[in-house]
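Allow me, if you will, to draw on your knowledge of protein folds for a short while. The matter concerns a single protein, recorded as an amino acid sequence and a row of backbone structure tokens. Kindly check, if you would, that the fold set down in the tokens agrees with what the sequence suggests. You will find the record immediately after this paragraph.
***
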Amino acid sequence: MGRRKVEIKRIENKSSRQVSFCKRRNGLMEKARQLSILCDSSVALLIVSSTGKLYSSSSGDSKLEETNGDNISIESLISLEEQFKTALSVTRARKNELMMELVKTLQEKEKMLRAENQVLVSQLTKMEGKRFLETEYERAMSPENSSGNNPPETLPLLK
């Protein structure tokens, strides 16, 4: 009994489509790895999902190959240097943008926490004030203070 033939058309169910994408992506990456090993070849694979997420796979070192500088012309080296400078400036600009967003977010969070802290301090102050008045009242009304004809002592805040 063999495998059934799958009709190649768009899968309408979103979750089924996602499951199929993940399985097929992993299978494709495994096949690329096998091809690289079996045929002793360099293989690079780029997959972009429908959400725009990039998946990549490459055989061997994924870093830039070193080239012999004797084979490259000065114009090519200058062009390469300019490309690196451009890439570096774009990277730094994006990094600065992300850092500024982070600083702004943290400042907003700090502002919210300070406001929350002020509310808590005022609530605590009110609670401590009520507690102080209640304990003074209870002390003044206690049986040991009401012995004899002595009227209860007035609260310190009312004096």
Summary: The longest strand covers residues 44-48. DSSP finds two helices and two strands in the chain. The CA atoms of residues 133 and 155 lie 8 Å apart. The domain at 12-59 is CATH 3.40.1810.10 (SRF-like).
